[in-house]
Write a structure and sequence with these properties.
Structural class: mainly alpha
CATH topology of the largest domain: Endonuclease III, domain 1
Number of strands: 0
Shape: elongated
Number of helices: 14
Oligomer: single chain
Strand content: under 5%
Radius of gyration: 19 Å
Distance between the termini: 20 Å
CATH class of the largest domain: Mainly Alpha
CATH superfamily of the largest domain: Hypothetical protein, domain 2
Number of domains: 2
Helix content: 55-70%
Largest sheet: none
């Protein structure tokens, strides 16, 4: 497995038109700032990420004001009390993207947001305190306790809200294969643990955020992560 310095040099060599700052991209949100984000905004972003999956982001974003209205500004205490009839009634609202499974997921995830956030004084504080050296554990928890958060949806949500995480895009997985970390796209817990250990090692070497290491890996073999 190459060192983080070697991977950075490889990424720079493949993209001489880019500075290392451009390759690394922006750092994640400061933990103190993430801790202050309201539960309603986090639930809104989580739901938006779920609806973005498989659709053009601009299409979803254009409809989001209607979603905010339909879901009471994504107040999790109100969303979790929606009845089946109320959610099914949203299927008649042509201002929304009418996907019943994803609409119902908002109610499940509202309950998760309140339950996970309660001991910490908010879901943002819960996310902020989760250790980066077990970010795959957070993915697993969100997938297990929430709805429609499997695959890359949980990592993409975390990236949206500023929680430091790496991404398992095709380019990143290809780079991980090249480094002998995995031999296929990691889905099993054992494979995800191996990936986490590799990222922890590179983070200790380079001192960069997980999201930045992810980008370096992607640029070491492809255009972006």
């Amino acid at each position: 497995m190459k060192t983080f310095k070697q991977l950075s040099e490889q990424a720079s060599a493949m993209h001489p038109e880019l500075s290392m700052e451009s390759i690394l991209g922006n750092p994640p949100l400061e933990l103190e700032a993430l801790a202050r984000v309201g539960d309603d905004r986090l639930l809104s972003d989580m739901t938006r990420r779920i609806f973005r999956a498989g659709l053009k982001h601009a299409l979803v974003d254009a409809k989001w004001p209607a979603f905010e209205e339909a879901f009471f500004g994504f107040d999790p205490n109100k969303v979790q009390l929606l009845s089946d009839d109320q959610i099914e009634g949203m299927m008649q609202n042509d201002k929304l993207i009418r996907h019943l499974g994803k609409l119902k997921a908002a109610r499940v995830n509202a309950l998760m947001v309140t339950e996970l956030g309660a001991p910490y004084g908010g879901f943002g504080r819960f996310l902020a305190q989760w250790p980066g050296n077990d970010i795959v554990g957070l993915w697993t928890l969100l997938k297990k306790q929430g709805a429609q958060l499997g695959g890359n949806s949980a990592p993409y949500f975390l990236r949206m809200v500023g929680k430091d995480t790496f991404m398992l895009t095709d380019d990143v997985v290809t780079a991980l294969k090249a480094q002998g970390v995995v031999d296929k796209k990691p889905t099993a817990q054992r494979d995800l643990k191996q990936v986490q250990e590799a990222f922890n090692h590179w983070q200790q070497e380079g001192g960069c955020a997980l999201c930045q290491i992810s980008r370096v890996l992607a640029f070491s073999i492809g255009p972006k992560d």
